[in-house]
Amino acid sequence: xxxxxxxxxxxxxxxxxxxxxxxxxxxxxxxxxxxxxxxxxxxxxxxxxxxxxxxxxxxxxxxxxxxxxxxxxxxxxxxxxxxxxxxxxxxxxxxxxxxxxxxxxxxxxxxxxxxxxxxxxxxxxxxxxxxxxxxxxxxxxxxxxxxxxxxxxxxxxxxxxxxxxxxxxxxxxxxxxxxxxxxxxx
Length: 186
Fold this sequence. Notes:
- The protein is α/β, with parallel strands linked by helices.
- It has a single domain, classed as Rossmann fold (3-Layer(aba) Sandwich).
- It is about 30% helix and about 20% strand.
- It has helices spanning about 30-40, 45-50, 100-105, 110-120, 150-165, 175-180, and strands at about 1-5, 10, 15-20, 55-60, 70-80, 90, 130-135.
- The strands form 2 sheets. Strands 4-3-5-7-6 form a 5-stranded mixed beta sheet. Strands 1-2 form a two-stranded antiparallel ribbon.
- A hairpin with a 7-residue loop joins β1 (about 1-5) and β2.
- α3 runs antiparallel to α4.
- It is globular and about 40 Å long.
- The model is unreliable at about 1-10 and about 170-185 (pLDDT under 50).
């Protein structure tokens, strides 16, 4: 599948990263949303305009089953894995860790680990899935509550770390470089 029609650049599914920020309006649970909003400001326009990196804020992890084709899913969410609150961490997902992931990201109607397992069973999962967690405490997700200072700081740190990890420093997407096109975006 080719994408990037707005720029005339042909990207294939093999380079595309679909970044999901999971969240809700319940205090620290909005961390995934806030990280994606921060990434939208930090990432190079070329990477997002060409479709090389697609950013989505979602409430329900089941939405990933309807996702567009991509080579890599990146899922960012508030997590309760037993680590120190405020810590930002990353794990590569595999089928064996679904049970663990089920408890880490369990504030949603259907736990993220279960959704990823279903996606894998249906053949609807890309070759690579990376989970980013912003560690929170159970009692910091009050309905319509505000985010704690600790999680605000962790969210800002996550934006910087994930942007660097995604390669936000590059000014020309890899597909344009490979095609010898240089930067043709306004």
